[in-house]
Amino acid sequence: MTFKTAVLAVAAAASTLLALPANAQFAKPEEAIKYRQGSLFVIGQHFGRIGAMVNGKMPFDAKAAQENADIVAAMSALPWAGFGPGTDKGAPHKAKPGVWTEQAKFNEHAQTFKSEAAKLASAAKTGNLDQIKTAFGPAAQSCKSCHDAYRNR
Amino acid sequence: MTFKTAVLAVAAAASTLLALPANAQFAKPEEAIKYRQGSLFVIGQHFGRIGAMVNGKMPFDAKAAQENADIVAAMSALPWAGFGPGTDKGAPHKAKPGVWTEQAKFNEHAQTFKSEAAKLASAAKTGNLDQIKTAFGPAAQSCKSCHDAYRNR
């Protein structure tokens, strides 16, 4: 399996995982918290590298942009399983109670991000910086709106 | 630029990217440490779910095994960038100094894991538990031998 096919398979696979309750997947809440924090951090790093190119802070490198966008897209489905019932405590975290009291709204944010991340990966495949910029904006906005609503500073 | 020089330039560029020190990819050592810890934790969770099926602690679910193996394979290339020069300090971690003093050996471990993770994903595609068991052993051994050599308890 190439890295690329693996990445594509992950995106498909993880959407199923999304539907599973946390207690079916994590031994204890602490692990769910570490899992969501870890996966979001990794996503943030790769997303930020695309942002640096989009904002001109780093020279544009089409191959690197595509690799980073593929990782973001593949991992975009992962973190949400770590926000299952009972994972509002167990380790220090910044998630607001709304994650658990407004689950449907929170899940909508997650779906929006997944969809924008997929669009960004498609744009990155073109190797065209303008297309990447166009897709990057809404993807970044989907991060921000969810952080504003559900993450303490 | 001829086609040949273009190809050589790309090859040179790619090897440069691969060889980039952590400080070119991470804003500070602390981020590299969080990145490697986060990605390894996520990999460990998904790998552990396959292990639970292999060891009979969870009922075998061919689809879930494949999804988990795909995630492990896709992410198997990620953590190593977080062990770059200068990332032996900056945040609490369990990596032994050998990671930085025996880089070639450490990188061999990383390559072995990537290769075993790819084999496990191929085995999982068959949906056959015996084939998954056969591939799981060496993959688990590759985790263990690297942890034994380079991770403090």
Which terms summarize this structure?
elongated; 0% strand; mainly alpha; homodimer
At a glance:
Chain A is mostly helical and 153 residues long.
Question: What's the topology here?
Answer:
2 copies of one chain form a homodimer.
Chain A: H1 3-17, H2 22-25, H3 29-54, H4 62-75, H5 98-101, H6 103-126, H7 129-150
Helix pairs in contact in A: 1-4, 3-4, 3-7, 4-6, 6-7
Give an account of the 3D structure.
The structure is a homodimer of 153-residue chains. The first copy, chain A, is mainly α. The first copy, chain A, is 71% helix and 0% strand. Chain A has helices spanning 3-17, 22-25, 29-54, 62-75, 98-101, 103-126, 129-150. In chain A, α3 (29-54) runs antiparallel to α4 (62-75), α4 runs antiparallel to α6 and α6 runs antiparallel to α7 (129-150). Chain A is elongated, with a radius of gyration of 16 Å. The termini of chain A are far apart. Residues 18-23 of chain A have low confidence and may be disordered. Chain A binds chain B through residues 1, 3, 6-7, 9-10, 13-14, 16-17, 25-26, 31, 34-35, 37-39, 41-42, 45, 49, 61, 63-64, 71, 74-75, 78, and chain B through 14, 17, 25-26, 31, 34-35, 37-39, 41-42, 45, 49, 63-64, 66-68, 70-71, 73-75, 77-78, 118, 121-122.
